[in-house]
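Sequence, please.
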């Protein structure tokens, strides 16, 4: 419960701080989403940051609800990513405002206290999450033991499954976050690549959900296709990282390279880890974990709606 309380407090404070940053920005810029404005990335960064905080709150709630120590580790990792993002945010906004100091000097002076406080709050919360994670690891581990039993092999496969689910959640956020920035800040409305990228976003989310289904119900066909998709995804992010720093593309990625690099590197790293975990889960097929999940679902069946059976001496 303490984890959820910390997450709620962090989210409220950070959202209020981001709202103040947004207020000063929109008070200064007349047409913030104009495609010709170099500062159009600022509202996108603010929206992604607030979305990340809400996503963190959802992950914290899920970790507490299911008393899942692996999910709690995910909360710590994701919050550290938010901390890195908050540092990037300060320097990125500073860089953009330095392009027109006469116009943005007062705006950035008003933003500065909030932009400094945000990483301090997130960093402090990360330390608290780590402390709580150490304290709760034993308690949550005991709950898993009570659910799974003494079978060490099933417990190992069960942990592998939850690590896989956690990586899928991280993939979903960073893949979509990268796509949103790429679509709005880099691509032009006339580009065919724009509409292809827009179409890929919902397809990616569906594929990630299918991957979770495939692991839980041990569908080898979907898993193999998912592995191929991950390899393609890794190749795509490597390609994008190379393109960002090609001299011929310098103007295209002007003022957006840092955030896109951050999201691309995290997405690439998450893809590699997801591929490794996918192989581990695939190798665990037909070893009893599916039967355990089926047993959990059977226990949830509500038999109260069934008519009572009268037993007689003959029975």
């Amino acid at each position: 419960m303490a984890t959820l309380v910390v997450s709620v407090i962090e989210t409220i404070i950070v959202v209020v701080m981001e709202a103040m940053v947004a207020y000063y920005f929109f008070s200064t810029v007349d047409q913030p989403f104009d495609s010709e404005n170099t500062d159009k990335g600022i509202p996108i960064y603010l929206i992604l940051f607030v979305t990340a905080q809400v996503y963190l709150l959802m992950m914290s709630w899920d970790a507490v609800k299911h008393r899942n120590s692996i999910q709690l580790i995910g909360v710590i990792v994701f919050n550290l990513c938010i901390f890195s993002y908050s540092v990037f945010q300060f320097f990125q906004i500073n860089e953009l405002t330095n392009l027109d100091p006469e116009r943005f000097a007062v705006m950035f002076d008003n933003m500065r206290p909030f932009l400094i406080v945000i990483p301090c709050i997130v960093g402090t919360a990360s330390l608290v999450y780590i402390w709580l994670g150490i304290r709760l690891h034993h308690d949550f581990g005991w709950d898993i033991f009570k659910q799974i039993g003494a079978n060490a092999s099933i417990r190992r496969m069960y942990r592998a499954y939850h690590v896989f689910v956690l990586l899928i959640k991280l993939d979903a956020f960073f893949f979509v976050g990268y796509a949103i920035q790429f679509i709005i800040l880099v691509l032009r409305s006339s580009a065919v690549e724009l509409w292809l990228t827009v179409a890929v976003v919902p397809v990616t989310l569906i594929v990630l959900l299918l991957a979770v289904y495939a692991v839980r119900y041990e569908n080898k066909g979907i898993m193999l296709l998912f592995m191929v998709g991950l390899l393609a995804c890794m190749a795509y992010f490597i390609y994008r990282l190379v393109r960002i720093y090609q001299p011929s593309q310098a103007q295209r990625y002007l003022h957006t390279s840092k955030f896109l690099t951050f999201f691309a590197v995290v997405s690439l790293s998450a893809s590699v880890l997801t591929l490794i975990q996918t192989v581990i889960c695939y190798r665990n097929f037909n070893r009893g974990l599916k039967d355990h999940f089926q047993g959990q679902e059977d226990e949830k069946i509500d038999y109260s709606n069934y008519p009572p059976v009268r037993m007689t001496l003959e029975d």
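Residues 10 and 85 are 15 Å apart (CA to CA).
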